[in-house]
Amino acid sequence: MNDYVLFSCTGSTDPVRDNYDGPMLHIIRHYRPHTVYIFLSQEMGMREEKDRRFSRGVKFLGEKLAHPVDIKLIFSHIENPHDFDAFIGIFSKHLEEIAQQYPKDKILLNVSSGTPQMMAMLCLETVVSSKPLIPVQVITPAAKANESKAGGREYDVEREFQDNLDNEPDAPNRCVLPDIISFKRTLAKGQVQVLIKKYNYAEAVQILRSYGAEEDSSVMALLKFADCKKNLDPASDSPEFAVAKALARYPELDKDCKKVCEYFNAIKLLQKTGHLTDFVLRLNPLVTELQGLFLKYCLGFSIDTIIEERYKPQRTKGPKKEPEKVVRRHKIKDYDQRMLKYIDEYYNGEYRDNSHVNIKLQNCLISYFLKRNADSQIKSFSDFLLAMENLNKEERNTAAHSLCGVLEEDIHEQVGMNSSKIVKKLEKLIAVVFKSRCKQEIFNIFDTINAKISGELERSL
Fold first, then answer.
1. Rounded CA gap, 218 and 306, in Å?
2. Smallest Cα–Cα separation from 448: which of 270, 249, 172?
3. Secondary structure of residue 300 in the 3-state scheme
4. Which backbone phi and psi does 323 adopt, to 5 degrees?
5. How far is CA 287 from CA 20, 281, 385, in A?
6. C-beta neighbour count of 404 within 10 angstroms
7. Are 57 and 69 in contact, with CB atoms under 8 Å apart?
């Protein structure tokens, strides 16, 4: 069975007129859909009820072709099919239902039957719909307007079908695909360009899929690859995306640097697209990770020195033991007794044993080591990390535990800089921490991919 479903309005040339197929039968004859939805105005519905001319015409053709067609009749009861407004929301509703019923099939639209308003509305559906719609036009046997008398209320469908010259083996195929697709192509390209500027790759994939773009095309591969990277999906590193990765010239980084840079890029997109609440909420893990790296690579201290790994106390039984890392006082003391004293003073009391590593503790450690480091750049990053601690305390906690959002002015009020400056500072910090292991092009990789997508759109669509 093929994968076509036909949606057809009906008019006075259907099912057979002047010894030739009407458009509906002709499309069925040459595309052989497994199902046809016949849309009937009130007048056409009365004709169908009187002599079943449309359903019987399809049945006769199916028997002749040895191709059974499932017939679905839609009695719309629309009294004035010459009124554009009569079809607002009507065709789209039925096409949505068909697409849900047959999600993997292509939907043919007969744009030659019915009133001019019906045809125009179906053409419009073709252009604006996200579904795989294929408009089919059927030219008249004389390649000009019909001049014969249309089938009226008295109609012998069986005799008309028997006298149908399109049943002859050498009868020509009069189906054509109107150039509506060129409008849809232009619209699709424009929509995708707008979406990738907002880094909305998932929606762009849907737009191109509805246009009929091949799933394995380079432009679809780039969009899917970018969407995976944006969502930190490990699938982006699978062989499936090797071609897209090469097209984008995605920089090679070591595992630790790649993990940090890709997470940073993901939250950078949140900032660039104005999702500031999500941006602030997701800053915490990055800042915590960067503090540990800053201590290790810039100040020569590994946080692992004072950490002990264990299973969470409440989950020591059962198969799902969950590990955690906690800070131990005796390890701090073993490493540096003065450090433990400094931490207790920083916390205005004894630092609690078995605490988790957080932004405040690591800022405490950074300030401890900076007592003997006067580097101005290092000091600048230390001030920035203190600002991030304040942002995490005030805005992140508010956003995480209330119904409030975070605005640009909220961020500026807390840390004296806007979100864009935070992103730039984080980028510099990553570059300083990883030095030559980090490649600058990774920070602009989504814009690089977007440029590639634009090029492939022009080349292949």
1. 49
2. 249
3. coil
4. -75, 155
5. 74, 11, 7
6. 11
7. no
Secondary structure in 3-state letters for 158-225: HHHHHCCHHHCCCCCCCEECCCHHHHHHHHHHHHHHHHHHCCCHHHHHHHHHHHCCCCCCHHHHHHHH
- The gap between the terminal CA atoms of the chain, to the nearest Å, is 29
Q: Give percent of the chain above pLDDT 70.
A: 95
Instruction: Summarize the confidence of residues 221-239 as an average pLDDT.
Output: 96
**DSSP label at residue 237:** G
Give the single-character DSSP code of 40.
E
Count of Cβ atoms closer than 10 Å to residue 129 Cβ: 18
Q: Is 389 in contact with 358 (CB distance < 8 Å)?
A: no
Maximum CA extent, the chain: 105
In the chain, the amino acid numbered 64 is K
Instruction: Establish how many alpha carbons lie within 13 A of residue 313's alpha carbon, considering only the half-sphere containing its beta carbon.
Output: 2
Opening angle at CA 396, ends 394 and 399, nearest 5 = 105
With 90 as the cut, is the pLDDT of residue 270 above it? yes
Q: At what angle do helices 180-197 and 116-128 cross, to 10 degrees?
A: 30
**Nearest of 140, 137, 107 to residue 125 by alpha carbon:** 107
Burial letters 374-386, b for 16+ CB under 10 A, else e = eeeebeebbebbb
Tokens encoding 377 = 């750049």
* Residue keyed to tokens 């053409």: 123
* CA dist 398 → 268, 272, 393, 410 (Å): 21, 22, 8, 11
Handedness of CA 211, 39, 93, 28 (dihedral sign): negative
Neighbouring CB atoms inside 10 A of 225's CB total 26
**Secondary-structure breakdown of the chain: helix, strand, coil percentages, each rounded to the nearest 5:** 60, 10, 30
Which H helix or E strand runs over 309? strand 307-311
Do residues 37 and 94 lie in contact, with contact meaning Cβ atoms separated by under 8 Å? yes
**Any idea what DSSP says for residue 371?**
T
Number of H helices, E strands in the chain: 20, 10
d(CA 400, CA 380) in angstroms, rounded, equals 28
- Return the structure tokens found at 63: 């028997």
Q: What is the pLDDT of residue 210?
A: 78
Record the pTM.
0.70
The predicted pLDDT at position 441 comes to 96
The pLDDT of residue 212 is 78
Q: Provide the sign of the torsion angle of the four alpha carbons 416, 419, 425, 426, taken in this order.
A: positive
